[in-house]
Amino acid sequence: MAGAVPPHEADPGTATLAAFAAGLRWEDIPRQVRHEGKRALLNMFATALAGCREPAVDKAVAVMSPFSGAPAASLIGRGERRDAALTAFVNAMAANIHDFDDTHPPTIIHPTAPVAPALIALAETEGRSGVDLLRAMIIGAEIACRVGNAVSPGHYARGWHITATCGVFGAAGGTGVLLGLNAEQQVWALGNAAVQAAGLVEALGTMSKSIGVGNAARNGLLSALLAREGFSGPAEPLAGARGYLAVACDAPEPGRLVAGLGSDWELARNTYKPYPVGVVLNPVVDASLEIAGRPGFRADAVASVELTGHPLLRQRTDRAGVRTGRESQVSAQHAIAIVWRRGQAGLDEFSDAAVAETMNAGRPVVRFNDDPARDIASVAMTVRMRDGSEHRAEIAAARGTEGNPMSDGDLERKLVALAGHSGFTGDVAALADAVWSLDQLPDAGALARLAAPATRNPAQ
């Protein structure tokens, strides 16, 4: 293409990632990483089924469907079909809308929601094997997380919603793998993605947040499709002087794009949420459940609560006055109150109804102590009772974190629970079996079809 610089003449960031995506064989991926890819997909189907009938998703489908092309791909849990681009957008929204999806701890990216829906929609539309899909998903997630590494922690702290902004690169790179793009075309795909990377932390807790995640999937898909047709971009869209890293972060580390590439797998560090809350609240929920189960404990006799944790715990969750279910997912006060009232922490505990319940019954007074030396997965909780007694709980590694991971069985139970919560009418066991045997499926589109039967519409 005229004016395009071949990847080998560019700086090593984008070129090396592009060559990795274009050249990595299935045999090069360790067995553990292949299995982690399946775990990530199983969790994605669980969270997408839970979110597929949320009002924001319904509104997006209604507004965008008149502009959809041929109905070639399945909307998870809705029994409808749309074109691949809209399907990628909607399924990504659904997978992330409850913030119940997977988490890459170093960056707090939820890598699968923006990446997998683009690949599944393309695989169903054009036909691809399970091995092809899984290889593309693993590579796409790796690219998203490595771009996130290179801009962390300043990028998220500056207000960018990192799942959306870095997820688009993963969706583009992964789609490029499914399309068989060469290294030069992969550079173009990442360049096309770079000009579409958007999403704001300010939008968390609102419907607008989901636009960023949906666009990450759709725009990543379109970025690679354009590159296949020779739609060229800058030679170094990531590490260039005015490339994405320099623009999106005050102190980027471009070397982290490629450090250990092909041997140190970011996806191997992936974690999965047992509760639909911000990751910094996981240890608080664990501690609250532990204390709630103690003999004689009464929530109505609590005078105050003290939490000692990583500074992000206070910064993200000191929200005593939340009024919606979305907001409650990042409120320590609500999380503690609802766990003590109900003895559990599922989707229903972070709904509008649950928020009204804790507003009426009262939420505890919580004091936060910042301890930068603490791991984000830990917390110390001290509960002071009105009679002067105390309850203490120390959580060193919250459930679902790297130090206390969810098992395959836990993820299967999460799928069953979330499918049941949404009234899914399909065969959950068959869906799980298909994910676990994905590398043996000749047609990866079978996954989408198994997840397509409609859920119950709450409005009906």
Task: Produce the secondary structure layout.
Blueprint: H1 12-23, H2 31-51, H3 55-64, E1 73-74, E2 81-82, H4 84-96, H5 112-126, H6 130-151, H7 154-157, H8 162-179, H9 183-194, H10 208-228, H11 244-248, H12 282-292, E3 302-309, H13 311-317, H14 325-328, H15 332-342, H16 352-361, E4 366-370, E5 379-385, E6 390-395, H17 408-422, H18 428-436, H19 445-451
Parallel strand pairs: 3-4
Antiparallel strand pairs: 1-2, 3-5, 5-6
Helix pairs in contact: 1-9, 2-4, 2-6, 2-17, 2-18, 3-4, 4-5, 4-10, 5-6, 5-8, 5-10, 5-19, 6-8, 8-9, 8-10, 9-10, 12-15, 18-19
How would you portray this structure in words?
The structure is a single chain. The chain is of the alpha+beta class and 460 residues long. The protein has 2 domains: 7-272 and 407-451, 2-methylcitrate dehydratase PrpD, CATH 1.10.4100.10; 279-395, 2-methylcitrate dehydratase PrpD (60s Ribosomal Protein L30, Chain: A, 2-Layer Sandwich), CATH 3.30.1330. It has helices spanning 12-23, 31-51, 55-64, 84-96, 112-126, 130-151, 154-157, 162-179, 183-194, 208-228, 244-248, 282-292, 311-317, 325-328, 332-342, 352-361, 408-422, 428-436, 445-451, and strands at 73-74, 81-82, 302-309, 366-370, 379-385, 390-395. Strands 4-3-5-6 form a 4-stranded mixed sheet. The longest helix has 22 residues, at 130-151. The protein is globular. The chain starts with 11 loop residues before the first helix and ends in a 9-residue tail after the last helix.
